[in-house]
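Hello forum,

I keep getting stuck at the same step: I have a sequence, I want structure tokens, and every attempt I make locally crashes halfway through. Rather than fight my setup again tonight, could one of you with a working pipeline run this one for me? It's a single chain of 100 residues.
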Amino acid sequence: MGNAVNPIVFESIIMGSIFHNYKLLLQSSKINNKIDDYTITQELALLTENKPQGKILFDRTCKKWHGLIDSLHKGDRELLLKMIFDICNYNEDYNKMINI
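Reply #2:
Ran it on my machine without issues. Output:
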């Protein structure tokens, strides 16, 4: 979490906890979610077409957490991007309010 380079330490701690719980939930759900660069690229294309506010939120979140994203191993990086994507894909109205 030190690579997140976030001036508010609490946010980094919360992001780490959320990401850890997300990984545990994926493992315990026994759903075989194959997550790779191709899957993320496809989902981002759909997000861009269907939910432009979600795409803006995704880009802003990735920009804010780029230090953490870049420092993770490939598998964890893909999981984190998937987690961020799922959050940004949730509800266009909420995403619009957040972006404003």
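Helices lie at 9-29, 37-50, 52-64, 66-71, 74-88, 92-99. If your local run keeps crashing, start a new thread with the error log.
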